[in-house]
Every structure is written in structure tokens, then in C-alpha cells.
Amino acid sequence: MYSPELGPDEADLIFRALGDVTRRDILTRVLGEKLSVSELAPRYDMSFAAVQKHVAVLERAGLVSKRTCGRQRIVSADPAMIQRTSQLLGACGQTEKMDATLAALPADADHRTAERAFTDAGWTWAGAGDWALALRAPDGSAAVRISPFDPTGPYTAELYRAAAHTRLVPELFAHRRLVGGGDLQLMEWLTPVDESDARAFHGLITKRDETVAELVDLIDGIHTRALRELPWCGPLDTNPSNVMRGGDGRLVVTDLFYADGPALYATAGGDPDALVSRMPEPERRFLTEIPLAASGPWDAASREEMRRGIAAADARRN
Fold first, then answer.
1. Which of 80, 111, 132, 198 could cysteine-pair with 182, CB 3.0–4.6 Å?
2. Is residue 59 within 8 Å of 13, Cβ to Cβ?
3. What is the rounded radius of gyration, in angstroms, for the C-alpha atoms of the chain?
4. How many other C-beta atoms lie within 10 A of the C-beta of residue 181?
């Protein structure tokens, strides 16, 4: 994960430049004062030409600049690039922490375990929808979407990965299925857009505009398979709230695939035997624990009644 202000090529140059102890020392010195190459060279046990080469590597990375003053070449640090580098290193540190949090999740982690792990790591509440809650990273650069029950989660993650090169979907850092049918997606932080912009973007997808044609092909292919493989898979979700803005300002489309909640939950409540026959228990264990924050509330008594009905259907089937 890179700082929004630095591209991968710039980041590579910076890491190469800072990967040498001599270059790090040169940068530290010119942060404090402007020095000529002639003044820098005697401080190192190497030739003048070798010091010049080290300065040139720092200059290519944008960390220092040189200017001519009489017969001297004065080296000075670029404060703006130093600040951007600091942001990059902070983002890399945050990535390591995210990786560590994910790696620490046990194999049998469910949505409660995942929420607790990220909260303990300093992630903060960012909101909830019908199917999932969201937490935000301590540095604000990423979000984790945690759902107790989301049959379409793997298809969404597949789209984000397959269409990553289009830059029209969120950047997905990690995806993991959780015990009981839950889903965890770790991605870049997104912000809302005006409804008119969102509808226009959905319109491009609907018309298969040439600017989104490759994305549409990927959407259609994955959605066709989801309809074939998943009971109660719904049509594409064209809710304007599913178009958001990435950290670099681009528009992205999210959560296009979803389970047909009304039909699925009507079956769970009215004909639990049909639910049990079509969806294995490990994939629906926490079906009654989705937040339902947008369409709810869903009272505890009704949830418990559905759980009892499903449990009785499981017992009859076994």
C-alpha cells in the first residue's frame, strides 16, 4: 500500500536510495544544513566520485537537489519529498500492522473474533449497513468490512482482484472467509460521492460505455457464475451509495453482488427446511446476526424465533 501522493515507481526509487547506510547518512546531514559535495566527501572513507554517485541516487529519488554556487555543487534536502516519504513509510508500517492483525486471527475466527482483533489493534468504528460493519485503520488509510453472513463476499473479492488494473474498483489488500458464513475484506478507505455522480457512473456500466467496457465484462462473467452457484443470488445492485471515491480521487464501484435478502429471509422464516436443504450449515450459521442497520431494526425476539426454526429444520434433516 503506497501513500496516495507517491506512485510505485517513485516508492521503488526511494527505497533503493534509503537502502544504503552512506546515503542515509548523507540525507541526514543535508537535512540539517546545505553542504557541497566537496564538503561531504571527506566525511566518508571512499573516493570523491563514489560520494557523487551516492548523491546522484538520492537526487534521482527526489530526496535531495543540487544547485551550482560558483564552483561548488550545493546539496540540499527537498522538504516536500521528505514529508511524502514519511507518509510512505508510515503507510508501509500500517500495512505491516494490518498483516500482523490478519495473521493473528485463528483459523476458526468468526465475525466477533475479527471485530475484536481489529478493535484491539486500534481500528475505530466507521458505521454499519444491512450486511456488514466497517472499521477504520488508525491512520485513516484503510477500512475493514466485517460481515457475519455474506454469501457473495468471495465473488466481490474476486471482482476487486480481477479488475484491479482498471482502477474502477477499490484496492483490496486482503480477503478472508470467516467461520459461519462470514466475510472479511480489507481495502482502501473510500468516501461518498454526490448521488448525481454515482448515477452517472452506474449509467456508464449499464450502457457498457467504452470507458468501463473491460470492467463490465468482468462483472458479467463473475455475476453469471454467482447466479448459477449461489442460492438467492440477487441482480446487480445499482444503489448510488455503491459508487464511492478512492484515496486518489477516482470513482470506484463497490458491492455490486448481493444475496436477495427479502427472498432468502422469507424462506428462512417461512420454510426453513427449504433453506437447510439448499445452504449448508457452515455457510449460514450466523445468518441472523447481520446488522440490518439500513433496513431494520430487526428485534431480538424475531431473530431468536428464526434461529429456533432453522435449528429444528437442521435436526429434522439430520
1. 111
2. no
3. 26
4. 24
What residue has cell string 484491539? 120
> Is residue 114 domain-resident?
no
Return the pLDDT at 215.
97
Q: Is the pTM of this model over 0.90?
A: no
Same domain, 134 and 196: yes
Do residue 291 and residue 224 come from a single domain?
A: yes
Other Cβ atoms within 10 Å of 133 Cβ, number: 19
Range of the domain at 44: 8-84
Q: Which residue has cell 470506484?
A: 252
Indicate if 140 and 68 belong to the same structural domain. Answer: no
- 103 inside domain: no
**Residues written for the chain:** 318
Whether residues 145 and 219 share a domain: the answer is yes
Q: How many domains would you assign to the chain?
A: 2
Domain assignment present for residue 53? The answer is: yes
pLDDT digits (tens, 9 = 90+) for 44-90: 999 999 999 999 999 998 888 888 888 888 998 888 777 777 766 66
Closest listed residue to residue 240, CA positions, set 229, 230, 254 = 254
Compute the average pLDDT of residues 132-156. Answer: 95
CB burial readout 278-314, b (16+ within 10 A) else e: ebeeebbbbbbbbbbeeeeebeeeeeeebbebbeebe
C-alpha 227/C-alpha 121 separation (Å) is 37
- Give the dihedral sign, CA 110/116/120/125: positive
For cell 425476539, name the residue: 301
Which ranges in the chain belong to alpha helices (H)? 8-18, 21-32, 37-40, 48-60, 79-104, 111-120, 153-162, 195-207, 213-229, 261-270, 272-278, 300-317
Same domain, 80 and 187: no
- In tens, the pLDDT along 272-310 reads 999 999 999 999 999 999 999 988 899 999 999 999 999
Q: In this structure, are 285 and 193 located in the same domain? A: yes
- Check whether residue 134 and residue 192 sit in a common domain: yes
